[in-house]
Amino acid sequence: MLPLKPLIILKLGGSVITYKNISPPKSNIEALSRIAGEMRISSNPKIVVLGGGSHGHQAAHKYGYGSLETSNTMRLAGIPEIRHNMSMLALEVESSLTNAGIPSVVLSPFSFVKMNNGIISEFPLEIIQKSIDAGITVILHGDVCFDSVLGSSILSGDTLVVFLAQELTTSSILIGTNVDGIFEENPDDNPEAKIISVIDATNRESVLAGAGPSKSTDVTGGMTRKVNDLFSLENTGIEVVVFNLNIPGRLKKLLNGKPITCTRIQI
């Protein structure tokens, strides 16, 4: 594996940093503390993107964000609860990084991103770039944003990762999940399912056919969409790694350039 270059985008999966099926939402503070400690191994500039987990998906589901039939009025009514939950999660991540000696700042997409029928229409990057240039780790998270067609819509953490990688000079995308990588079959259904070590143009379609949605409440598309979205970064040369963030030491090894069990997506 080649040494990591600046800038690293690190996605913290909601299934790792929250107890995804517990209501009301609850963060996994122990995991956050461990992750922050492992991040200290690398001085590369970083953007940390948070999956919503229990904080985002439960409220989004409650207000019908998973259906195009939901009225704009219903969607708009969900903004305060979704925003409150995601703000709580983001501040807990920021506290964990601060306690580990990593200067960080939370930038909430709701405050500056606009959507059009579920697609980003405005996303100013200046404050993100200035924060990175100042040596500050930027924390962004999946969020609800105003939408010119739908009233409001969900900007997922996965969409954030792809957009930022397209717009900023990025060397690596590290996607931390609750499994070792991407499997030929859902390991929840088949414990003998084999991990796919490399995904590229030769096996992309077969992988997408087998990568099913998450079993827990997830209004943002599950694994199939995650993989498909990442392939929109074709020909960028960005290193993409999907790995198990639940296993202590894996993130540290990855940041230190050491081999781990994972899936590498070659785009």
Quick overview:
This protein is α/β, with parallel strands linked by helices and 267 residues long. Helices cover 35% and strands 20% of the residues.
> What sort of overall outline do the alpha carbons produce when their principal axes are compared?
globular
CATH topology: Carbamate kinase
The largest sheet has its strands arranged as: 3-6-2-1-9-11-12-10
The rounded Rg comes to 17 Å
What's the rounded overall pLDDT mean? Answer: 89
Q: Say which CATH homologous superfamily is assigned.
A: Acetylglutamate kinase-like
Tally of separate helices: 10
Strand content: 15-25%
Please give the share of residues in helix. 25-40%
- The CATH class assignment is Alpha Beta
Structural class: alpha/beta
Q: Order of SSEs, N→C?
A: EHHEHHHEEEHEEEHEEHHEHE
CATH architectural grouping: 3-Layer(aba) Sandwich
Number of strands: 12
Termini separation comes to: 15 Å
Reported for the largest beta sheet, the result is: 8 strands, mixed
Query: Residue ranges: pLDDT <50 for 5 or more in a row?
Result: 212-221
Q: What number of structural domains do the residues give?
A: 1
